[in-house]
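Hi support team,

I'm opening this ticket because the web form for multi-chain structure prediction keeps timing out on my end. I have pasted the exact lines I submitted so you can reproduce it. The total is 467 residues across two entries, so I didn't expect it to be a heavy job. Is there a limit I'm missing, or should I split the entries? Thanks in advance, R.K.
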Amino acid sequence: MTDERLLIDRAQQGEMEAFRELVERSKINVYRLAYDLTGNRHDAEDLSQDVFVKAYRSLRLFRGDAKWSTWLYRITVNAAMDRKKTKAQKYLTYHDPSAGEKDDQELMPHDPEPSPDRLTDAGLIRGNIERALEALSAKERSVFVLRHYHDLSLRQIAETMGISEGTVKSFLFRAIRRLRKSLDFYKQDFGLENE
Amino acid sequence: MTHKECREYFLDALYGKLSPQDMQSVKAHLASCDDCSREFREMEETLHVMTLHKREEPNEHDWSGYWDRLSLKLGQEGKRERTGIFRLIPERLRFASTPAWVYGAAAILLVALGFILGRIYFVTPQQGGENLAKEQGMQEMQSASEDSVSRLAYAYLQRSKNLLIGVINSDGSSGSTLDYSQEQKVSRDLLEKGQVLEVALGENDQQHLLRLIKDLEVILLQLANTEIRPGVPVVELVKNGVDQKSILLKINLLEMGRDSHRRQPPTTKKSS
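Hello R.K., no limit was hit. The queue was backed up. Here is the completed structure from your submission:
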């Protein structure tokens, strides 16, 4: 039995110290995925904490069929999708009640006040990439982020998201096409316009 | 290779997952097709640009407070578990996400239950007034019935008293046979009416009048059934009966009591 499995068993029996150790080991990866899915530090920390609260609530249901990290990733992706849905609903309520049938990537408001580092080149590039990611649907973004920033295979992504590999491929292809379309507008910023 | 087939290989080609033969076929198609070639190049560029993505990592200070903030949330979670209705929920169901409609249905059920209990155990002031009025009506009806029986009873007593006084005051001492046929007839009539009155007084629980009428019945029965012939002391029989039972005294007392009751000022029932 692995060290991680022992910790999980102890945490399942209600030992808070064991759960704390699991959190300490997983928090960086969960935070990073949360950041990639939300695009800012504040939301990332908030989301990562929600993930651990949900993990604690569901700890008894964890049977070890999947890896602990895969299980946490699944919770993170689902929590991020729920959060995006809630945000989109709030945005609809306050801004455009008639836009109910639009795809959610068109509904997210862009940050009207760029932070100071967005005025630098690095900040500008980061801002453009973030806007391109924001333009994706929650599932497209999740698939792209897991593949490119967390190096999960298509099979692992399928397992994490509970979908088929074919569907993962389809989301990924659409994501890259959409990103290309979004980044086309910022080609000048990336120095790609004259290529 | 068609355009569609070629594009289906794009992802695997980008991630280096194609077999050498398939990769050769894709390359051959891209070399001969400007559209597919441009699309593949743009996808490569896009993925390259996306590698420039950088995260803002939390610093040591941020991480140091991470567990404290989390344990606070977990503490609230635990508190929620330990208190209130959550204690009653089986553990295996405790973390299941309860749909919102369940809470709604429970709330409606509680309101309905409250309404039903309210209807059963409480009455509105209007309903209370109606019930009070009904009760008063019943009492008045009962009271009217009692008054009516009492009136009949007093009339009965008065008639009996007159009869008995008349017999007692008759001159039976002379030894001559008097004709008491009329008194006997009245006596039988009173006996018949007395039986009806006894039932009514029994129903109205007017025991005092009932006892008196039963005492009278004995004397009236003697009078009605006595064979009137010379030498039979009719007056003495009646007089003895009246004396033994103190009938006339009792009748007089009852009448006095009723008269004094009538002279009292009427009580205001409405105020009750």
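A quick check on our side: Chain A has nine helices and no strands. Let us know if the file doesn't open in your viewer.
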